[in-house]
Specification:
Elements (H helix, E strand, L loop, with lengths): L16 E2 L12 E6 L3 H16 L3 E2 L8 E6 L4 H15 L1 H4 L4 E6 H5 L3 H5 L5 E3 L7 H6 L7 E2 L13 E2 L6 E5 L1 E2 L10 H5 L3 E2 L2 H13 L4 E5 L16 H8 L7 E4 L9 H9 L3 E6 L7 H7 L5 H14 L4 E8 L6 H14 L3 E6 L17 H26 L3 E9 L5 E4 L11 E4 L8 E10 L2 E6 L11
Parallel strand pairs: 1-8, 2-3, 2-4, 4-5, 5-6, 6-7, 9-12, 12-13, 13-14, 14-15, 15-16, 19-21
Antiparallel strand pairs: 10-11, 17-18, 17-20, 18-19, 20-21
Amino acid sequence: MSENLLQIQPISEMPLVRRDSAPPLAPEAPTAALISLGCAKNTVDSEIMLAALAGAGYRLVSDAEDAQVAIVNTCGFIEDAKRESIDTILEVAQLKEAGDLETLVVAGCLAERYRGELAQGLPEVDLFIGTREYDQLPALLSGERGGAREAFSDTLMDYGRRLPRILAEPGPSAYLKVAEGCSRPCTFCVIPRFRGRFRSRPLDLVVEEAGALAEAGVREVNLLAQEITSYGVDLGLGFSLAKLLAELNEVDGLDWIRVLYNYPRGVTDELLDAYRELPKVCEYIDMPLQHVATPVLDAMRRGIDEEGTRELVARIKEKVPGCALRTTMLVGFPGETDADFERLLDFVEETRFARLGGFVFSPEDRSIAARLPDQVPAELARERMARLLALQERIMAEDNEALIGQETQVLVEGLTGEGLLRGRTRLQAPEVDGEVFLHETEAEPGEIIACEIIGTDGVDLVARGVEADVSTAPGR
């Protein structure tokens, strides 16, 4: 395809962030579509690939059926995610016979994790790249890098430089990656093996990208890293996430700043003060705890025990009153006893997390936990997970009912299929925490409006606008 590439704008000269409003290309420009699976960090990586393709002259399309080149950015975190990735690859591969598809690329964590193995089992795929070559995709497609079917680098991708993005989704909210990789020793996780060690992005570059997002119409940024509380340590800045939040709080055009994936050991008093004092920082603390029973936490190598976990939760609630505390729990970890699980249920009942996500333990290849004794039977682990989620569902239903009659701010994001306005409060993260459906309300996407909660709909809330206008007022 190299003879068809139309160089419209070198990637180094592209705007740092842009919506999908590229200049019109000639009809012969090759078309490309990208399917992004897995977490929000993958979404950002996909947007970097989109910018690289656009910079090399590709015409981006939303449907793989209309594309000559299709890229599947895979997830390789747990077994269910791996299965979804393989199924998607095989589904897209069928378009080679049924559609215009000429080239199928598999990128991301699954490709990186199983270098060499996937190529043997998936002859339908034309190019495999991992997690370190995203901005090099056009050169790899054109054969400039040797034309090999597998293109993996042993050098970690440099996130300390400008990496233009094209926002994949419309709307006033976007993700902002502040670091890559992880250096924590959790025994159940293999992410450091294919994402590499923890690397912070330079503070000035993160702030610059936040400003570019605001100029593109984004009003809420959701900060991402595999383990965000270590931000700045590798740059010689110490634990400086609070400093980054203070800088972002001054970015014109941004109204809400949300922090995702806090590691418990890194939640300092300085960070909690930033949550409480900086008006644009949402009082929303996403902190995957994984468990509470000390024997399980020790086996996971989480660096904290039950007493420390309980003290941390109490300190958060004291320093950031009214915050939404979101967590993730891992059930069925090797050695988890009935007593350990009952302690977890008691802890969840006492803490009343605003949101709780759950995973059943998956013995991942090459993880330490996969080799531990006393593996919990899968059926028992699933039964425990069902009990945990039922408990959390009851807690959320009770807490949502208690919100009826209260006023809150809502960021309007768009319309439902039925034509209702929809949005989120400061205490709801995108994609994982439900939405607010607005009745008897007029507003435009991107506005932040005062609303009264008038009902609930499962995990979602129902509200209507009130007369107060806060569309230009950041903060609480």
